[in-house]
Backbone:
């Protein structure tokens, strides 16, 4: 049916990404501001990491390069444009600091994610990746906010 373990893995990853996109669409439809949407996406990702079994991203990267390429493609083709859009809208609405470069910030966020899943820095056997994610992304995004943006999402920050 799948032809190989790689085929099975790639199909499972694609199914998971389709599910995530549908959940993101539902989530974002109920939020009014870019800063709320960005934090909701981060919170959703944090919950995904907390619910996920122990992941060995290095196994994907090393033994299943097609599966790893799917993940990188998802980040490049779906996550990156979404983040740029939210950051640009938030900058225009005064929720994120005006001097920010949305594309550069997006690049930095994705680089932080790739750092997170790098077992040389965060060995999965000794590291709770969800806690690293929480400590890496939420303070960083808080620093991107204006005072007005931070006030809009103070309750979301308090829940993290």
Residues:
């Amino acid at each position: 049916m799948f032809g190989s373990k790689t085929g099975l893995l790639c199909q499972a990853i694609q199914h998971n990404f389709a599910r995530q996109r549908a959940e993101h669409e539902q989530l974002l439809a109920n939020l009014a501001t870019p800063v709320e949407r960005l934090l909701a996406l981060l919170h959703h990702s944090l919950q995904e990491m907390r619910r996920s079994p122990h992941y060995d991203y290095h196994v994907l990267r090393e033994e299943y390069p097609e599966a790893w390429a799917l993940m990188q493609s998802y980040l490049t083709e779906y996550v990156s444009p979404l983040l740029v859009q939210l950051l640009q809208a938030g900058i225009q609405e005064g929720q994120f600091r005006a001097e920010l470069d949305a594309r550069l910030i997006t690049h930095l966020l994705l680089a932080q994610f790739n750092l997170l899943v790098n077992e040389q820095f965060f060995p999965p056997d000794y590291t709770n990746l969800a806690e690293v994610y929480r400590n890496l992304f939420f303070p960083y995004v808080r620093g991107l906010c204006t005072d007005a943006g931070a006030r809009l999402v103070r309750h979301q920050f308090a829940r993290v």
